[in-house]
Amino acid sequence: MGEFNVLIPKLGESIQEGTITKLFVKEGDIINEDDVLFELATDKVDSEIPSPVSGKVKEIRCTENETYPVGQIVIIISMGETEIAQKKESVDKGEAKNQTKEDITGKEEYKSEKENESFVLSSEQNTNQDRFFSPLVKNIAEKEGIPLKELNSLKGSGLGGRVQKKDILNYIKEQQVKPRENVIKKEILPESKQPEKVSESAENKFKISVSVGADDTIIKMDRVRKLIAQHMIMSKDVSAHVTSVVEVDVTNLVLWRNKIKDLFQQKYNEKITFLPIITEAVAKALDEFRVINASVDGENIILRKHINIGIAVAKEDDTLIVPVIKDADSKNILGITREINGFGTSAKNNKILPDQLQGGTFSITNFGSFGNIIGTPIINQPQVAILAVGLIEKKPSVIETPTGDAIAVRHKMFLSLSYDHRVIDGMLGGKFLRRIADLLEQFDLKREI
Questions:
Q1: Confidence grade of residue 36 (pLDDT, cut at 50, 70, 90)
Q2: What is the set of active-site residues?
Q3: What is the tens place of the pLDDT at every residue in 130-149?
Q4: HEC states along the chain?
């Protein structure tokens, strides 16, 4: 009979810690392999972490809403006790079937239940506030900027009207759609009399004093937005960002896709977009320019053997995550298309797996999908470059013909490459970007699918 240590998993190369937002088990529970143990949140994704083994939860070394470093032991599972415990649980349930709580007051099971519900207190016991709230609910309210008066107004679904986690989360979701105007209207001094905020520490040196008007609406950043902000600021602090831009004639690419897209859908049951074709070109260019497929560790440049391309995809809440196509240079158009389409479906259903976010060596973000023609993206650490893809537009262009120059309608797009100037100088970044453009402009119209 052995023990298995469940650790905080590494959900991404740059991820060093995660927050346990929900525990699904307690000590003594019998679990099967793949049963969900806890929900883990990082700045990139919220994931349900399953159990790798079957057994009995021997010890829980973590609590909800606390942050732990990658690799820390949070749950210990005793293996081999499943069958014995299940039999005992079956017997216990049979004995307790017709008993009331008063009959089993002395039992540990009821004692545990009473301890869990001990925070449901009467109004006489709560002299400082109208109702009592669990530490988890109060913590969520504090992070979301919900004052006590507003919290007291919530209708709870728990015992005695107690506000549970799901109640406050549902309330927060509703308020994100309809701003809490009645809540944030308070006595505010005129702008001319606003007290000036003074930075008191190094961590506050970039904070800006902002005047708030009586008609303004305040929306508190949620946890994910705070983490994204921290990650982006960190990237700008770490890397010397430079952006190069090139305009690409993708007429051949557009004509080829228009010609084969229906057949592709019928043959493979997959919708093909321009992104898989661009990803294929990027993978080929990365194979030729290995320094772009790298990371920086102090004064060392790490050249990555595998070309793993991250694709930025949108979730239902309009945040972005970056799942990774592993060994993209070894995959054909069909393989890349299937992975990208799968990422999109999984992201919308919040089903992206932790393993899909790990190991990226280069990233692509598609500004064109939002109707934008150009952008200057921020590098996804610890990578050293990221490519932004703009909108494809029809434009009049001068082209060379056997009889001289002529003006014709062509399909054009902008590609913009942000890169880390510590590693990549302008010449190398420009050559790499031009190589991607050449591969797209020289796309073979006769290519088979």
A1: confident
A2: 421, 425
A3: 466 765 677 778 777 788 87
A4: CCEEEEECCCCCCCCCEEEEEEECCCCCCEECCCCEEEEEECCCCEEEEECCCCEEEEEECCCCCEEEECCCEEEEEECCCHHHHHHHHHHHHHHHCCCCHHHHCCCHHHHHHHHHCCCCCCHHHCCCCCCCCCHHHHHHHHHCCCCHHHHHCCCCCCHHHCCCHHHHHHHHHHHHHCCCHHHHCCCCCCHHHCCCCCCCCHHHCCCCCCCCCCCCCCCCCCHHHHHHHHHHHHHHHHCCEEEEEEEEECHHHHHHHHHHHHHHHHHHCCCCCHHHHHHHHHHHHHHHCHHHCEEEECCEEEECCCCCEEECEECCCCCEECCEECCHHHCCHHHHHHHHHHHHHHHHCCCCCHHHHCCCCEEEEEHHHHCCCCCCCCCCCCECEEEEECCCEEEEEEEEECCEEEEEEEEEEEEEEEEECCCCCHHHHHHHHHHHHHHHHCCCCCCCC
